[in-house]
Design brief:
The protein has 212 residues and is an alpha+beta fold. It folds into 2 domains: 78 residues; 97 residues, Immunoglobulins (Immunoglobulin-like). The protein contains 2 helices and 8 strands. The strands form 2 sheets. Strands 3, 4, 6, 7 and 8 form a 5-stranded antiparallel beta sheet that branches. A 3-stranded antiparallel beta sheet has the order 1-2-5, with no helix packed on it. It is elongated, with a radius of gyration of 39 Å. The protein starts with 7 loop residues before the first helix and ends with a strand.
Length: 212
């Protein structure tokens, strides 16, 4: 037995087929109420047409509303800007139009100092280091970390003689751990970390020294 349709178009198609069949073969279906089917089909078609028209009108109304709102906002912004100029000497007067003076920009502090830098794994030309985030309340939010490196030259007596190279950027990290590869081998290296944000950079972390 066929399965009763669930889609509107399928239901309407079945109604049309029944009306056509009852009309052409009335003797076979003496108890069929064809006029009722036709009446309800016509009512459905009328309601569908009305819905389509209403949806079209609603779309037009929505677009008109959005256009009117956009125009209103443009005028509001333009007049607020002019009113801010008019009341530059006394911005508090903007309260009379439901507005107020510009909020002062909040300053951002440079981050605090990264803490407890240490080496957790060393290899031939490779180094895995980690550190802790700056202490809470010690500065502004951290955007990224810069890892710096310099070479330490040791003379034959084992004294560095203060002969340290310049700090150079070795890596950038968003996390508090980074794996450094292709590092110089056979020389003493020093590493430190700085935290960075829009306001600037932090004081460098403690320094660690390694030979890879």
């Amino acid at each position: 037995m066929p399965r009763y349709p669930t889609q509107q178009a399928q239901i309407l198609a079945l109604a049309e087929a029944m009306i056509g069949g009852y009309t052409e073969h009335a003797a076979l279906f003496p108890n069929a109420d064809t006029p009722l089917l036709q009446s309800l089909r016509d009512a459905y078609n009328t309601a569908t047409a009305a819905q389509t028209e209403a949806m079209a009108k609603a779309q037009i109304a929505t677009e008109a509303k959005q256009a009117a709102l956009a125009q209103l906002q443009a005028v509001i912004k333009r007049q607020l800007k002019q009113s801010q100029i008019d009341t530059a000497a006394n911005p508090d007067n903007l309260k009379y139009i439901g507005w107020g003076p510009r909020a002062s920009a909040q300053s951002i502090e440079a981050p605090g100092q990264p803490l407890t830098l240490k080496s957790i794994d060393e290899g031939a030309g490779t180094l895995l280091i980690e550190w802790k985030r700056p202490a809470r309340g010690s500065g502004g939010p951290v955007r990224t970390y810069i890892i710096e490196r310099r070479e330490l030259t040791i003379d034959e007596t084992g004294d560095d003689g203060g002969n340290r190279g310049r700090w150079r950027q070795a890596a950038i990290s968003l996390e508090t751990k980074v794996s450094l590869k292709r590092q110089p081998r056979g020389v003493q290296l020093e590493y430190r970390v700085k935290a960075i944000n829009k306001a600037g950079e932090s004081q460098p972390s403690n320094t660690i020294a390694v030979v890879l």
